[in-house]
Every structure is written in structure tokens, then in C-alpha cells.
Amino acid sequence: MEKHNIFNQIPADLTHEVFEPLVDQDGVLVERIISKKHVTPEGQWYDQDRSEWVMVLQGEAKLLFEDSEVVHLNPGDHINIPAHCKHRVIWTSDTTETLWLAVHY
């Protein structure tokens, strides 16, 4: 078995948001997402077939839901997003990387 640390090996080039699968089996995907100044493109919404539980481990982010609710996530904050609940990322920190831990199930 090989040990890993979720806070290590953060890419220097974050021109694009990084999605790294950590576990993908039996219908469950666990991934590390790394954002810095990234947002969902204007007019686009996540409308996922599976539910997603997501936690911010470092940095900050704001999610906008289709009903206009804005949720500000700080380190340690987590939220469960049901399947087909339309949402988008409207802000991530521009001063530090935002590390997310996401579980799609």
C-alpha cells in the first residue's frame, strides 16, 4: 500500500482547475479538486446524475444554486448536493489554492 497526503503535490501551474480521482470504484468517485480563481463559466450549471458531497479543506469558495442561494465555504465546511440540483462555483480564493474533497455517489 502506498500512502499519500492530500495537501502534497499541488501543481505550480493552475491555469486550469485540477480534478484528481483518488478512488473510483463501485459507483463511488472520490476526488481532489484544486482551484485558484476558478469559477464555472457564465451561463453553465453543474447538473450531475449523482449526488455530490463536497468539503473545502483549504482556501474558500462560493457556490450559487439555481434557487439563487449562495453558500460560502471555508476550511472544514461541507455540503451535500443532491443529484440534479443545479449549481455553479461563482468564486474561489485568488490568494491561495482552494482544495476540495468531493465524493460522488
TrEMBL record:
Cupin type-2 domain segment(s): 47-103
Gene3D superfamilies for this protein: Jelly Rolls
Xref: Pfam families: Cupin_2
Protein name, per record: Cupin
Annotated source species: Methanococcoides methylutens
Source lineage: Archaea, Methanobacteriati, Methanobacteriota, Stenosarchaea group, Methanomicrobia
